[in-house]
Amino acid sequence: MGILDRLMTMIKAKISTFLDRHEDPRETLDYSYEKQLELLTNVKRGIADVVTAKKRLELQKAKLESNIESLNNQAREAVSLGRDDLARIALERKKDSMAQIESLTAQIADLENEQAKLVNTERRLSAKVEAFRTKKETIKAQYSAAEAQVKITESVTGISEEMADVGMSVQRAEEKTETMKARSQALDELIDSGTLQDLTGDQTKVEEELSKIKSNEEVDQELKIMKQQVPVKKKATTEETQEAQQ
Fold first, then answer.
1. pLDDT in tens, 30-88
2. Which residues contact 67 (CB under 8 A, 6 or more apart)?
3. Torsion, CA 170, CA 174, CA 176, CA 181, rounded to 10
4. In Å, how far are 154, 162, 165, 175, 183 from 169, measured between CA atoms?
5. In whole angstroms, how far apart are CA 158 and each of 104, 154, 222?
6. CA end-to-end span of the chain, whole Å?
7. Are 129 and 34 contacting, i.e. CB atoms less than 8 angstroms apart?
8. How many CB atoms lie within 10 A of CB 90?
9. Among 57, 189, 204, 244, which is least packed by CB within 10 angstroms?
10. CA 156 to each of CA 128, 150, 152, 153: distance values in angstroms, whole numbers, following the listed order
C-alpha cells in the first residue's frame, strides 16, 4: 500500500469516526423517511402521467371511430352517385383510420398494464413507507428515552462533561481555600515571632522594644528622685524591739 493510499485510509477512518460521534440517528431516520416519501411521490406522479397519456389516446381513438362512420356514409353516397373513385378514397381513409385505431388500442393496453404495475408498486411502497414511519417513531422514542437516561445517570455519577467541570471547579476551590488558610496561618506565625512586621499596628517590633526601655528608664529615674525626697526609716535593733514589747 502506497503512502497516498494509507493517507486516504486514515482520512476516511477519521471522517467515519467524526461522523459516527456526531451523528444523530433520529435525524438520519427522518431524512430516510423524507427520501422514501419523495420516491412515493414520484411513483404517484408517474401513475398520473400514464393515466393522462392513456386518456389522450382514448380520445384520439374515439375520434377515429367516429370518423369511420362518417367515411362509411361518404363511400355509400359516392357509390349511389356512381362515383366509385370517391368511394374508393373514402374506403382507403377508413382503412387508414382502422389501422390507427388498432395501433392506439395496443398502446392503450400497454399503458393500462403500465398503470396497473405502477399502482401495485405504489401500494407496496406506501405500505413499506408507513411501516418505516411507525418503526422510525418507535426507534426515535426509544433513543430519546435512552439518551435521557444516560444524561441522568451521567449527571448523578458525575461522568458527564458538565458535572466533571463542576467537580473540578469545586476541587480547585477547595484546594485554593486550603492553600489560603495555610498561608494565613503561616503569616500569623511569622508576625508573632517577629519575623514579619504587622504594618497595620501602631508600632513596629523595634519601636515596642525602645518604648519599653524608655519606660523602664523613666521608672528608675522617678524611683531615684522619690528615694531622695522620702527619708528612709532606720531598721530597729533586736534589743529595741524587746524593750518596746515590755
1. 888 999 999 999 999 999 999 999 999 999 999 988 888 888 888 888 888 888 888 89
2. 97
3. 160
4. 17, 11, 6, 10, 21
5. 77, 6, 76
6. 135
7. no
8. 21
9. 244
10. 41, 10, 6, 5
